[in-house]
Amino acid sequence: MVESKSTTKCKETVVDSERSARILERLQSFKKINRFCNIDIQNSSFSANALLLAVCYDYFEESILGKPEDIMKKMKECYEKVSPAAIEVLDNYFNTNKLDIDEDKIDEILTTSFVLNLTDIFDECLIFLEKNIRSDNCIRNMKLGKKYLDENLHKKALLYIVEHFSEIRHQEDFLKLEQEEIYELLKHSDLNVYSEKVVFESLKMWILYNKTNRIQHIKKLFNLIKLPLLPTQYLFDAVSPLVYLDPECNQLLNEALRWQILSKRKSDLRPYWTIPRKSTQVILAAGDWELNQSKMLDIYDPVTNIWTHYMDLNLNKQRFGSALIDNKLLTFGGDVGKEPLNTVHLTDLKTKSTILLSSLNHARSCPVAVELDNYIYAIGGIDLSTGKALSVVEKWDPNTQKWNNIAPLQTPRFGTSAVAINGNIFVMGGSSDGKTFSSVEIYDPATNTWEVGIPMVEKRKWISAVAVNEFIYVFGGDDTGGPRLKTAEKFDTKLKKWTNIENLIYAGDGIGNCVLSDKVICVGGYESAIFNHVQEYDTKKNTWKYLAPTLANRAHVRLLTIARDLLAI
User: Fold this and answer.
1) In this structure, which topology does domain 177-269 adopt according to CATH?
2) What number does CATH give the domain 19-132?
3) What is the pLDDT of residues 125-149, one digit of tens each?
4) Model confidence at 47, in pLDDT bands (50, 70, 90)?
5) CA-to-CA distance for 415 and 462, rounded, in angstroms?
6) Could you say which architecture CATH assigns to the domain 278-566?
7) Average of per-residue pLDDT across 491-506
8) Of 332, 340, 295, 345, whose CA–CA distance to 316 is shortest?
């Protein structure tokens, strides 16, 4: 018997990957010779096949079962709404699978794809605009982002304008901005200008471009100018002539002038009004634990995120206190080889020259400097020759250019930090006789007295502290014999309460810090070795990020913010 063999039938699926392209080419060839085109609009070069239109455009799908004349009527209605040039671009896309986005036609293509509900083409156009933002189209792109509710396009174009504001403000498109658009720009804290004068002059140009219709908006927009930060003479000469007829604007102007004259009212104003825009400021890094680095005066530019060396200070000392007075650098105290000094120097940051001033009454290392009501206070410190902490406090009077002793601290301290807030001085932490403190002392200049404040959550010495709005922030430090601290905390002056905040990225003591807008910049420090890390704390988001490192490792460096137009840069 012959055994039968089972057979399996073969099966294969063949895919023609080029067939779709050939079909598109064939359709395009038919269109070129007007073959099978049953829709033709008079007085236009447009012709199409009704079935193809319905396949390609959802807008025409419901009309496919109707008569050709109905589809033609629908097409004519569409043709009246949108650009013929854009229709040709879209029609070419459906016949060739190629979308030619021409920037000169982008508005028309966007409108047409929006009307016809062509989301894929619409999205491609928005992506194209996002990738091609320039100074000559950023305002248009910002407007298109707002018009079509595309948050990404609107935000990217807005940030481009903010970054290149000094250039773009001279364009006619800027002068044609709507009131809500100019408001959105001027309120931006990251507006890239070298001086607040630029912001005022830009607003003035915008108003005068169409004064009759825009003068009504002056009060709302005038609120956005940081008037207290403008020079007093400039307020009289440049600002007053524009607003003298508006009583509410005049009131704001007078309030700014009073703030400049009566420094005790500084805490009464809205924080927005008195916090400089980030781009108008640079950071000075002065002093250090080490002698060589103490001479280095470096500058950090927050716009470019770059550190540069500005000058070498004509000083031969370290661990000194420093502050800005009349935009000049005042340095006092310090030591050489642990020998405490009482010398005081004033450095003109434009001419880079230094003069000697009246000495401190008490020689010391590591005095804490704080400015309040135009006076400079030198608080506490240490006599490194004996290791003793000091309780002495002196006040520099810029009128007499002399130091005056005032009420001493209740507890001698070194490695402390101090801030001025709400008309008082808060001194926090520090160390004495081998003990580290969490305690706080508060100085009232009106009564020349110190009182005990609410202690911090942790004991800290060699800490850094700043005041932002109604809060005091302290960072890092160390406890006696313990590791360097990574923790940070803030004090709410209204609720009278300390709370922990997000930890530093790097633990350390002797960290220098200052405030830029609502950010705290923390520089250098010591943790097993001196380092050059720079960390930025966002007080609104409670988050940290890295910035460019310093040119050299720094510890116990003093950071001071100054208007960039006051330096020789």
Assistant:
1) 1.25.40
2) 3.30.710.10
3) 899 999 999 999 999 999 999 999 9
4) low
5) 4
6) 6 Propeller (2.120)
7) 97
8) 295
Tokens 């988001």, residue located: 541
Classify the C-alpha dihedral 28-84-147-156 as positive or negative.
positive
Domain ranges within the chain, ordered by starting residue: 19-132, 177-269, 278-566
Structure tokens at 520: 């705290």
Instruction: Look up residue 566 and give its two tokens.
Output: 């006051």
Rounded to an integer, what distance in angstroms lies between the CA atom of residue 368 and that of residue 415?
A: 8
Q: How far apart are CA 300 and CA 523, in angstroms?
A: 11
- Strand ordering across the sheet containing 440-444: 417-421, 424-428, 440-444, 449-452
**Please, where are the H alpha helices in 262-336?**
271-274, 291-294
Report pLDDT digits (tens) over 235-273: 999 999 988 878 889 998 988 888 887 654 555 556 678
Which residues touch 449 (CB under 8 Å, ≥6 apart)?
407, 443
pLDDT greater at residue 12 or residue 64:
12
**Calpha distance 291→272 (Å, rounded):** 39
Same fold, 19-132 and 278-566: no
* CB contact at 8 A, 361 and 405: yes
What is the rounded CA–CA span in Å between residue 467 and residue 473?
Answer: 6
User: Does the pTM of the predicted model rise above 0.70?
Assistant: yes
Counting every residue written for the chain, the total comes to: 569
The residue with greater pLDDT, 37 or 442, is: 442
- Rounded (10°) angle between helices 84-96 and 106-115: 70
The residues, ordered by sequence, that sit 6+ positions from 411 with a Cβ below 8 Å of its Cβ are: 391, 432, 437, 439, 441
Q: Partners of 371 in the beta sheet? A: 376
